[in-house]
């Protein structure tokens, strides 16, 4: 199996090239792509492709799989949270949400995360790996297939740092937006990063029309470095400079994510510093009531503090939204279902190499 090629991770043009190299008809790429988009798990399901060709394909390629380990559906708002198992025993989460404007899915880009943000449930010591482009895509395909809901929007805000898995995430974007695939346009996709500055410059060069979200969470280095270790590598001003460059190159408004943590980053002083930091920048600020992570001393801000923070930003003419909290009756926020499963030894993660 190791020498076989994961077919779901190949871009359409790569698949065409590979077929040509193998002396197989190139036009079959369209049929294969369509079947993979429907979420088939074997070549034998590709019924409009002859048996001989299917057998040949199986000698060279394999179809990547994501198995549903558990699924929780909110009775309040229809949110469905999936825990998917990967072929190597790892597991990842995806959350399907219903909005008035359509169905949106929050997907993972890595199994685990090594960024170590102190407020986040995704950081677990031990094995972390990049997902393949196919594994990222299959979260969308399988959730759509399982739920019967057509997915129109995607946010790369699940477990993992997308820009730490840059090449596979770029391949995923090409796959998901391909007209013969799910055909989901870049304007319906958001990518969230903790701020890997060199990769933000790389992404700007690609001039994709996706929405870039920056997990800012603090307006100064002292505070941000205590919350997010990545800030010790790329400080706040270096990050904002990269964001301004991104906006200049792509014309796309950046969204700054700011999780409101009681008594930590929700003061008037912080709000004023944030205004100063983003002054004159045509951007969007998204305030997220902190999801409390079990065992963490960090608590969500009081409602009135959040409102005061929001009002101050608005009085300085920033566009501010407060994230709605969906699925609060299930293991709602990113990383929590996986975390519980890992803790309770319900997935193969029980044999994580703790070091
Ligand atoms: N690594 C990427 C994407 C994954 S996190 C990033 O850092 O942006 C998706 C978003 O959820 C980020 O903005 C992250 O900071 C935020 N987040 C993580 N834990 C949270 C929590 N407990 N409460 C609220 N937001 C949280």
Please state the CA-atom Rg, rounded to the nearest Å.
Answer: 21 Å
Q: Would you tell me the overall average pLDDT?
A: 91
Large-scale geometry: elongated
- pLDDT < 50 runs, ≥5 residues: 344-355
Count of helical segments?
11
Strand order of the largest sheet: 3-4-5-6-9-10-11-12-13-14
Count of β-strands: 14
| Fraction of residues in H or I helices | 25-40%
The ordered H/E elements are: EHHHEEEEEEEHEHEHEHHEHEHEH
Bound molecules: S-adenosyl-L-homocysteine
- N- to C-terminal distance: 29 Å
Percent strand equals 15-25%
Structural class: alpha/beta
Largest sheet: 10 strands, mixed
Describe the structure.
Helix content is 34%, strand content 19%. By secondary structure, the protein is of the alpha/beta class. Strands 3-4-5-6-9-10-11-12-13-14 form a ten-stranded mixed sheet. Helix 1 crosses helix 2. The structure holds S-adenosyl-L-homocysteine (SAH).
């Amino acid at each position: 199996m190791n020498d076989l090629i994961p077919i779901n991770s190949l871009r359409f043009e790569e698949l065409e090239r590979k077929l040509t190299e193998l002396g197989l008809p190139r036009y079959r790429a369209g049929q294969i792509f369509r079947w993979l988009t429907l979420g088939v798990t074997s070549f034998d399901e590709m019924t409009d492709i002859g048996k001989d060709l299917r057998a040949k394909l199986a000698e060279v390629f394999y179809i990547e799989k994501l198995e549903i380990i558990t699924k929780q559906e909110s009775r309040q708002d229809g949110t469905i949270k999936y825990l998917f198992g990967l072929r190597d025993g790892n597991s990842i989460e995806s959350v399907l949400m219903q909005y008035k404007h359509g169905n949106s899915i929050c997907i993972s880009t890595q199994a685990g995360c090594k960024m170590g943000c102190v407020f986040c449930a995704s950081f677990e010591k031990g094995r972390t790996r990049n997902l393949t482009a196919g594994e990222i895509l299959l979260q969308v395909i399988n959730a759509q297939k399982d739920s019967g809901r057509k997915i129109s929007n995607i946010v790369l805000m699940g477990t993992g740092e997308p820009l730490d898995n840059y090449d596979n995430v770029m391949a995923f974007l090409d796959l998901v937006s391909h007209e013969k695939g799910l055909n989901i346009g870049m304007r319906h996709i958001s990518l969230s990063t903790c701020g890997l500055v060199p990769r933000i410059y790389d992404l700007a060069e690609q001039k994709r029309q996706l929405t870039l979200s920056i997990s800012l969470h603090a307006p100064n280095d002292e505070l941000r470095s205590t919350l997010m270790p990545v800030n010790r590598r790329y400080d706040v001003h270096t990050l904002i400079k990269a964001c301004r460059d991104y906006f200049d190159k792509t014309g796309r408004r950046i969204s700054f994510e700011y999780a409101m943590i009681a008594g930590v980053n929700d003061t008037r002083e912080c709000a004023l510093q944030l205004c100063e930091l983003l002054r004159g920048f045509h951007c969007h600020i998204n305030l997220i009531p902190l999801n409390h992570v079990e065992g963490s001393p960090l608590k969500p801000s009081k409602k009135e503090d959040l409102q005061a923070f929001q009002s101050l930003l608005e009085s300085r003419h920033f566009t501010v939204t407060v994230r709605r909290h969906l699925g609060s009756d299930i293991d709602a926020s990113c990383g929590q279902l996986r975390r519980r499963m890992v803790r309770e030894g319900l997935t193969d993660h029980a044999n994580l190499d703790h070091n």
